[in-house]
Amino acid sequence: MPFRREAEAQRERALVLREHGKAERRADRDDAADALLAQAVEAERAARDASAKAQGIEDVIYDLKAVNPKERKAGDIRTPLELLDAIEAKGREVDESLARLRALMAG
Fold first, then answer.
1. Residue 21: exposed, middle, or buried by beta-carbon count in 10 A (0-12, 13-18, 19+)?
2. Are residues 3 and 28 in the same domain?
3. What beta strand segments (E) does the chain contain?
4. Do both 53 and 95 map to the same domain?
5. Which of 14, 54, 93, 95 could bridge across to 43 with cysteines, CB 3.0–4.6 Å?
């Protein structure tokens, strides 16, 4: 994965630049230290960008959802009137079940 390698290389570059920047700061060469630290920040940004690109590619390639993308979706093809009839029928079933429960509880 080239983006992962790029990200790792940029992280290593940022670490080296930071260490050199600290050494320059200890030697009282503030201008050189500032330049090195600015380069380190830029390398860290490049590493984050490369990591984000790699992650985006991996997310697409290694999509582990348990879904068959070629499967046809079976939708509800009933008309609104058929849906209302089905709801009414289920309502009657519920009413009958409730009546039987009440009869059992009344004993």
1. buried
2. yes
3. none
4. no
5. 14
